[in-house]
Amino acid sequence: MKFSIIILGAPYTDEAAETAFRFAQATLKKDHEIYRLFFYHDGVHNASSLMTLPQDEVQPTSRWQQLIEEHQLDAVVCIASALRRGILNKGEARRFSKPADNLLAGFKLAGLGELVDAALQSDKLITFGPCS
Amino acid sequence: MNQATHNSTDAVSPVSTTKRLLVVCRTAPYGSSLARESLETALAAGAMGINVAMLFIDEGVWQLIDNRDAHHKGHTETGKSHSATISALPIYDVGPLLADKESLSQRGIDLGRLADDAEIIETVQVINILNSYEIVLSF
Questions:
Q1: Looking at CA atoms only, how far is residue A113 from chain B in angstroms?
Q2: Which of A8, A9, A68, B96 is 20 to 30 A from B38 (CA-CA)?
């Protein structure tokens, strides 16, 4: 089955991203396909290269990055949500004259058209929302 | 500095599909930006030529209250009025805007305060409505 996964929660703050990650892992383990991961709302923080946690804790962002790289997943971060929350790639940082960029490699910034496309192309679309 | 004009609905192009989309809104308009971002998704899908309806349920029914001066009181995350966006949805061919009756009555919401385009549905209809759309996006 072809799945797309929407992640609305930030890592560490909510459990949504953690549950989404486990779901993604289980999906791939069962030989299903993931058409797209779509990070929206506070979920865009999952793509920050600057998140810094103590070494003995789970590293949610690099864990996503590894999964994306290993399975060559299409990982889209909503550009409007991302910019509003300070998640920028090199191009956007330059465009808005910001001092740094912080989008992790493997993720790309794109518009909501990619979410609608995922909805049209996938058999199942699963949302992992924040608890509030 | 550049004016920030990043709008996620800017770059969408029309698609050809017969699939209809239902956007389910379960969060209140203020306090979190999720309600706003669910409207943006509906607008983007509408701009792509997709048949989009919205279902407001649970806390989501608060989104339908016509309260266009809310931004004057600093109640939103963006400084923009939520109900102004709600009232613009039909212009972008988004609709119907369905409101769950039980969610409204549980919250004591006066039906006269709802946006003009809101359509109240009986709670028993919800499951059929969810089943009748090919795509359901839940926020």
A1: 5
A2: A68
